[in-house]
From TrEMBL:
It is a peripheral membrane protein. NCBIfam families: PRK13442.1. It comes from Microbacterium fluvii. It comes from the Bacteria. Pfam families: ATP-synt_DE_N. This is F0F1 ATP synthase subunit epsilon. Keywords: ATP synthesis, CF(1), Ion transport, Membrane, Transport. The lineage of its organism: Bacteria, Bacillati, Actinomycetota, Actinomycetes, Micrococcales. Residues 3-82 form the ATP synthase F1 complex delta/epsilon subunit N-terminal domain. It is found in: Cell membrane. Belongs to the ATPase epsilon chain family.
Length: 86
């Protein structure tokens, strides 16, 4: 089972796809999501979003000013500013 992830900024969709793990920074600290996690709605803090795809490939993005939600294995991250890290 995989997570369905969508990371969007105010201007565009930054990344979307499947993942086995997503770690993001909230105003209360870092939080990680794996399939089956309890529902969450949190305020995004400035920091990195780290996405591990099912094949082990990692995607990293800088994000700030927004929120994230998790429900039914769907992770949605909406940031005022977000960009993939090269």
């Amino acid at each position: 089972m995989a997570l369905n992830v969508s990371l969007v900024s105010a201007e565009e969709e930054v990344w979307a796809g499947e993942a086995s793990l997503v770690v993001a920074k909230t105003i209360l600290g870092e939080i990680g999501f794996m399939p089956g996690h309890e529902p969450v709605l949190a305020i995004l803090a400035e920091g990195q979003v780290r996405i591990t795809q099912p094949d082990g490939t990692k995607v990293v993005a800088d994000a700030q000013d927004g929120f994230l939600s998790f429900e039914a294995d769907v992770v949605t991250i909406v940031a005022g500013n977000a960009a993939l890290v090269a």
